[in-house]
Amino acid sequence: MATERVDSVKTYAAVWIVLLILTALTTAVAYVDLGAFSVVAALVIAVVKMLLVALFFMHLRHSTHLTRLVVTGGLVWLMILLLLSFADFMTRGWVGVPGR
Amino acid sequence: MKSWLLTKDHKRIAVLYLATVTLFFFLGGAFATLIRVELLTPQGGLVSSETYNKLFTMHGVTMVFFFLIPSIPATLGNFFLPLMIGARDLAFPRINLLSWYLLVIGGLLALFAMLAGGVDTGWTFYTPYSTTYSNSWVIATALGIFVAGFSSILTGLNFIVTVHRMRAPGMTWFRMPLFVWSMYATSLIQVLGTPVLAVTLVLVFCERVFHIGIFDPALGGDPVLFQHLFWFYSHPAVYIMVLPGMGVISEVISVFSRKSVFGYAFVAFSSVAIAVLGFLVWGHHLFVSTQSVYAGMVFSFLSYFVAIPSAIKVFNWTATLYKGSISFATPMLYAFGFIGLFTIGGLTGLFVASLGIDVHVTDTYFVIAHFHYIMVGGTIMAYMAGMHYWWPKMTGRMYPEGWAKLSALVIFLGFNLTFFPQFILGYLGMPRRYHVYPDEFQVLHVLSTAGASVLAVGYLMPMIYFIWSLRYGALAPANPWGATGLEWKTASPPPVHNFDEAPVVTHEAYDYSTVMGEVIEVG
Amino acid sequence: MASDAHGETLALREQFDSEEQQKDASTLGMWIFLITEIMFFGGMFLAYSVYRNFYPHVFAVASSSMNAIIGATNTGVLLCSSFTMVMAVRAAQLGQRKIIILFLVLTLILGIAFLGLKAYEWNVKFEEHHVPGPAFHLDGVDTQGPAQIFFSMYFAMTGLHALHMVVGVGILTWLIIATYKGRFTAGYMTPVDIAGLYWHFVDIIWIFLFPLLYLIDRHLG
Amino acid sequence: MGSLPLFPEQASTIAPEVDHLLYYLLTVAVFFTLLIFGAIFYFAIRYRRRSERELPHVIHGGLTLEVLWSVIPFGLTMVMFSWGASIFFTESRPPADALQIYAVGKQWMWKLQHLEGQREINELHIPMGRAVRLTMTSEDVIHSFFVPAFRTKEDVVPGRYSTTWFQPTKPGKYHLFCAEYCGTNHSRMIGWIYVMEPRDYENWVSGGGPTGSLADEGGRLFESLACSNCHKPDGSGRCPNLVGLFGRIVQLSNGSTVVADEAYIRESILQPTAKIVAGYQPLMPTFQGLVTEEGVLELVEYIKSLGPKPGAPAGANVPVVVPHQQ
Ligand code: HEA
Ligand code: HEA
Ligand code: CUA
Ligand SMILES: [Cu+2]
Question: Please, how many CA atoms are within 13 Å of residue B253, restricted to the half-sphere of its CB?
Answer without folding.
Answer: 34
